[in-house]
Amino acid sequence: MLRTKTALAVLWCCAVLALPAQATPPAPNLDLRQAFALTLKRHPDLRRLPLQQAALRADIEQAAQAPAWVAGATLENALGSGAYRGADAAELTLSLGAALEPQARRDARVGLAQSRLDGLDIAAEGRRLDLLAEVARRYLDVLALQEEARALEATLAQRQTAAVAARHRVGAGASPTSVQLGAEAAVARAELELARTRAAATAARRRLALMWGGELIGAVQGELLALPDTPDFEHLASLLERAPDLQRFASEARLREARLQLAQTQARPDLEWQVGVRRLQGSDDWALMGGLSVPLGSRRRAEPGIRAARAELDALALEREAGELDLRATLAEAHGRLAVDALAVRQTTDKVLPALERAEAAAGQAYRAGALSYLEWALLQADLLSARRDRIAAARDFHRALIEIQRLTAEPFVLADRAPNETTP
Questions:
Q1: Is the peptide bond before 28 cis (omega within 30 degrees of 0)?
Q2: Which of 99, 257, 369, 398 is at 20 to 30 A from 29, Cα to Cα?
Q3: Residue 113: which region, alpha, beta or left (left: phi > 0; alpha: psi -120 to 50)?
Q4: Residue 83: its pLDDT value, please?
Q5: Is 71 helix (H, G, I), strand (E, B) or coil?
Q6: How many Å apart are CA 268 and CA 107, to the nearest integer?
Q7: Which pLDDT band holds residue 240 (cuts at 50, 70, 90)?
Q8: Do residues 163 and 367 make contact, with C-beta atoms less than 8 angstroms apart?
Q9: In this predicted structure, what is the pLDDT of residue 9?
Q10: How far is CA 404 from CA 133, 324, 333, 415, in A?
Q11: Phi, psi for 280 (deg, rounded to 5)
């Protein structure tokens, strides 16, 4: 149940990123759901889980085995001297024996092996969460670079327009040649930045495809600037109890309890019995023989192991408390970043960018009319690009924080393409 729930939760994490973009990207394209599915299917860390489970099931079978029977043969009074020279006086004993192991010890041994198997499932869920969160982060990097490339394309178009206007003014003798040269240099810089961003996006797509060992993919789909609503901090904190990072402590507690029980069973000694027949050479007769042995000092020898196992079990409560504090601190930091980044994106979208776009358009008209210098127009274009980049960075940080929250809680949130009160199952 935990595996299914966790997979569903992470499969939908940052699902707002997987909404179709306005423009159709070139094939082969990819959305976030496909990236998750490919990683779950192909990543080596997840594919080796069945092999690890098979090995631990074999350990359980081995732990359930009873002590082996021991068959023996003993030859006495042979190859000596005098009357015992050669084998004339030799006596042969055939025996069969075994250890009488306490059932509690076998049960404890099986319980320890079973706890390891159960712990593997919890560890696998944590690893699955980490992998899919990394997929979402790499996907987000690609999406942010694509958004930055679009911003640079818009800036390049603006600077090309400014260069054309500068050429016209220089041709009309209204501006010196240096203005035209500066405008053309600005176009060249914009082209360089755009080329570098596209190259970085290609590298980011390749890095994303490596999560499932795939080849280079095309553009990814998504709306970086769509920011979903998130629950408040107290609600998120209440979800931590079911998070794999804390479930791991419950699994470890069962493992350490099993170790303690196994250590306690070592205080009870194993009785070793033996029965057999002996051939008496002198009378040429056969006789039954038997034996029973008990190791001494078993409780004293087992006491250090019991103390160590009990101390490890008691220490786990403190480890869990420290782990929970760390999780809450990480959650609080990520939740705080959500509010700050969301405010930055919305303020930039609603106020900063519209004002700068109007100012840039007005500056272009004023420059063509000779009422404004080229430098002032260029500065407004640079401010507009900086604001666009700031918005992209804030949106990327918002989604990164959201990914971290979903990794910690393993819970889905409201999706941007669903009703406001609808959540994933």
A1: yes
A2: 398
A3: alpha
A4: 64
A5: strand
A6: 14
A7: confident
A8: no
A9: 45
A10: 7, 15, 10, 17
A11: -95, 110
CA separation for the pair 404, 335 (Å, rounded): 9
- What integer is the mean pLDDT of 15-23? 43
At 10, list the tokens: 């992470």
CB 138, CB 409: distance < 8 Å: no
Strand ranges (DSSP E) for 69-169? 70-76, 91-100
For the beta carbon of residue 205, count every other beta carbon within 10 angstroms.
22
Q: What is the pLDDT of residues 351-382, one digit of tens each?
A: 999 999 999 999 999 988 888 888 999 999 99
Predicted confidence (pLDDT) per residue in 308-360, tens digit = 888 888 887 888 888 888 888 888 999 989 989 999 999 999 999 999 999 99
9 compared with 370, residue with greater pLDDT: 370
3-state helix, strand, coil in the chain (%, to 5): 70, 10, 25
78 compared with 4, residue with greater pLDDT: 78
